[in-house]
Amino acid sequence: MANKSKKDAAVSNRADLAQHVDTFLKSGGKVQEIPSGVSGQTSTSGPRQIVLSHKTSS
Question: Domain segments of the chain: what residues?
Answer without folding.
Answer: 1-28
